[in-house]
């Protein structure tokens, strides 16, 4: 059984501050916990490929508005498939490793 709890970033800062992304309260952010409340894995705020592309754009000095446009173009070009695949792989890796223990 999986229990889903949504935590709003701006009303639970003490929780969000435990899972910063490069010092920022980035969203979306998924953190999975076991029944004892231990963090199992985290994901977000974007797929690894997009995070790497953004880091390159920042290093190249691309302006913020242009980075936002490129990120949107990146998502549109992939139709969300990259997010689905990466997140599903993280979940399945955790389920499979828990089943082996």
The number of helical elements comes to 4
Strand percentage lies at 5-15%
Bin the helical content.
40-55%
SS elements, strand count: 2
What is the residue-mean pLDDT, rounded to a whole number? 82
Residue ranges: pLDDT <50 for 5 or more in a row? Answer: none
> What is the C-alpha radius of gyration, as a whole number of Å?
16 Å
The assigned structural class equals mainly alpha
Strand order of the largest sheet: 1-2
Distance between the termini: 18 Å
Overall body shape: globular
What is the string of helix and strand elements? HEEHHH
**How many distinct folded domains?**
1
Described by strand count, sense and barrel closure, the largest sheet is: 2 strands, antiparallel
The quaternary structure here is: single chain
């Amino acid at each position: 059984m999986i229990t889903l709890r949504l935590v709003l970033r701006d009303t639970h800062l003490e929780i969000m501050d435990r899972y910063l992304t490069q010092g920022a309260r980035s969203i979306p952010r998924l953190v999975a916990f076991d029944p004892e409340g231990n963090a199992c894995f985290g994901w977000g705020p974007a797929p690894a490929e997009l995070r790497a592309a953004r880091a390159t754009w920042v290093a190249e000095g691309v302006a913020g508005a242009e980075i936002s446009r490129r990120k949107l173009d990146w998502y549109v070009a992939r139709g969300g498939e990259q997010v689905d695949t990466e997140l599903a792989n993280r979940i399945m890796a955790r389920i499979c490793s828990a089943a082996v223990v």
